[in-house]
Design the sequence.
């Protein structure tokens, strides 16, 4: 199957994060012999979802090469001007849900895997995980089911980087905070009652304190990254304009530099919340480490040389978002390197320049040759 045809087919599968990814996994499985695949079912809150491992066993097992990609996409939106599951071509771009994030990367991984026609010197893994866009359940499952000696592997995360070498990413943390109160008629309240029993009032007090962290974060710098960030992205509370709210929930999204300690930053936020109300609930919804690979590693040096050979350049950057590199770095050096523009991820009318898929397939093949043969 040609690259463009394969990408179109992958986009046609509705693998939005709220759905099961069974159909797209079964399609990918159809390309490979049974002795090379391992499917792991995982139950989340809504569906049975699946991880897929495709392994080419090597003559040796001490320095495996791993390619990582996720099969789920973010949910579509009403802002799409076309059917997101019926990809269309305009000029040099292919439009469709997941075209950039990250079915172009999956296409490159599949075609690269299909090009392996002899036993490699080292093990080669192609990991297709589920639930990356929500909680990272699939990636964490791989850490339990794939036997990799910590620190031994080279890992390529095929997320969109415009074919640039992304040597690092920020860490990510999502915290859910719930304040509780006592419902009553708003005509029968006062400041003291609001402080004690108005859940939204407590949330506003918390926001005032959390804003001080946002100001302080603006002073933290890094040679490669922009400043760390903190944002309240959702808030829900209250039942009527004349009822003191007895519950208010908001979510904090925190992006961390590699130099920050994620546990310490969580505890700092937790301390602020409990300082306002000890009965509040603070939940860690998602926590993912930052990643930064040294530019003197074998993985990076080989990738840089290949980039210069294939593209006549080797652009180096970091990503402000989060990828599975934050999980898989325990296995070894992680480089984020794939087709598509990261700025198109999660956008309506998402697209990918399809020539980048050809470029990355060539790069991946050369990387396998340099590290595994």
Sequence:
């Amino acid at each position: 199957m040609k690259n463009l045809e394969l990408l179109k087919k992958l986009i046609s599968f509705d693998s939005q994060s709220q759905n099961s990814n069974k159909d797209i996994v079964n399609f990918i499985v159809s390309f490979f012999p049974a002795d090379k695949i391992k499917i792991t079912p995982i139950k989340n809150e809504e569906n049975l979802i699946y991880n897929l491992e495709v392994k080419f066993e090597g003559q040796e097992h001490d320095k495996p090469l791993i390619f990582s990609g996720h099969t789920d996409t973010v949910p579509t939106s009403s802002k799409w001007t076309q059917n997101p599951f019926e990809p269309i071509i305009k000029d040099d771009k292919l439009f469709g849900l997941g075209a950039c994030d990250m079915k172009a990367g999956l296409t490159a991984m599949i075609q690269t895997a299909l090009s392996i026609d002899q036993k490699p010197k080292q093990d080669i893994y192609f990991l297709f995980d589920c639930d990356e866009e929500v909680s990272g359940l699939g990636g964490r499952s791989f850490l339990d089911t794939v036997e990799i000696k910590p620190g031994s592997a080279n890992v390529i995360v095929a997320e969109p980087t415009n074919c640039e070498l992304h040597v690092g990413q920020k860490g990510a943390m999502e915290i859910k905070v719930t304040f509780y109160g006592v419902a009553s008629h708003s005509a029968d309240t006062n400041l003291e009652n609001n402080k004690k029993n108005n859940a939204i009032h407590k949330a506003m007090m918390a926001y005032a304190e959390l804003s001080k962290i946002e100001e302080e974060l603006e002073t933290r710098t890094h040679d490669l990254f922009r400043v760390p960030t903190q944002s309240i992205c959702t808030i829900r509370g209250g039942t009527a304009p004349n009822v003191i709210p007895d519950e208010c929930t908001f979510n904090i999204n925190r992006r961390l530099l590699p130099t920050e300690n994620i546990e310490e930053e969580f505890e700092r936020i937790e301390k602020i919340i409990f300082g306002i109300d000890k009965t509040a609930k603070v939940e860690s919804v998602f926590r993912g480490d930052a990643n930064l690979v040294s530019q003197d590693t074998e993985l990076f040096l080989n990738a840089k040389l290949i980039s210069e050979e294939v593209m006549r350049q080797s652009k180096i950057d970091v990503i402000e978002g989060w990828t599975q590199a934050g999980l898989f770095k325990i296995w070894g050096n992680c480089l984020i390197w794939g087709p598509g523009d990261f700025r198109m991820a999660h956008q309506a009318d998402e697209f990918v320049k399809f020539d980048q898929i050809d470029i990355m397939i060539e790069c991946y093949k050369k990387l396998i040759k340099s590290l595994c043969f």
